[in-house]
User: What shape does this take?
Amino acid sequence: MSQQSPTDRPPTTALVEAATTAGQAPSVHNTQPWQWRVLPDALELRMARSRQLAAADPEARLLVLSCGIALHHARTALAAEGWIAMVERLPDPAEPELLARLSGFSRTDLDPDAMRLVQCMRIRHTDRRPVSEEPVADSAIEEITHAVTAEGSRFQILDSDQVMELAAAASHADIVEAEDPETREELAYWTSRAGTGTGLPPEVLPEQAPQTTVPARDFGRSGSLPVGPGHDRAAAYALLFGDEDEPESWLRAGEGLSASWLTATRLGVSMVPLSGVVEVDSTRQILRELLAGIGFPYLVLRLGIADPAHAGPPHTPRLAADQVVDTSAVRGEHG
Ligand SMILES: Cc1cc2nc3c(=O)[nH]c(=O)nc-3n(C[C@H](O)[C@H](O)[C@H](O)COP(=O)(O)O)c2cc1C
Assistant: This one.
């Protein structure tokens, strides 16, 4: 059987591959709240409301952010294969579920930077163990920050006073969420999905709460990931934020988060999102005050160097491509 080279593939095959590659994107609680549709001349991204966190994320902020990560993964996969695409975000006001449409494809050179980021998609993962004592280099922070700003959002490293405020806010958010039966039930659902390709398996959740200044999310159950005696002294905490608090900004923030997380992976920096503080209204307001009114907070991120001496957690499973990529409109055209 002859293998087509990347330069003579029909676009629909490239589109199916890009949407499939985007399945590796991280999402809140590994909900993978996206649905792709491949058309003869376009690729559409819709939110999958059935996998929204109705209790923790009623406004769909984290859902749209997660879809933005998948969008950037798909864009990058296309660029790596030498495809330029026009991207329309929220293209149809009558259909708010349609988050993006990629179309107007044209050929260019294969993009080596994008190829490197595609390799990073395969190794990137969330490592919830405490970080090592080695601080993240300033040059790495600069590159990670630039990756966010290049996608139109902003990224601010918190100073030590702000980290103390974050610590108090994160611990308060944990209490509020633990006291809310619906959020508790939702968390229990997404942490007991073994074998479904969604949610968080015990292997990626800490055996016990790590001893850190900023508390990690309390998943309401312990997992089997050994955490050791480490701390978060050498971690940097950052806020991902932007000018507006609306779906298009959340989508772009997701694209920026993808770019920065893949860049961090390339640089050997571990990134862990902390979303409890943005899920709870009162603590999201505290983050807004931390920003002194210059923007709206979307997500907190912990940056650090993972413990090099021990293996990290395994990869978190994903849904099969045919569950999130609809190819019915191009059947027979690709393959
Ligand atoms: C928007 C968003 C919010 C997240 N919030 C948290 C969080 O609060 N705590 C945490 O430990 N992981 C958080 N994560 C990490 C996800 O649980 C993780 O990406 C997902 O389970 C897939 O695993 P992987 O990143 O190892 O591929 C978040 C991820 C995203 C994209």
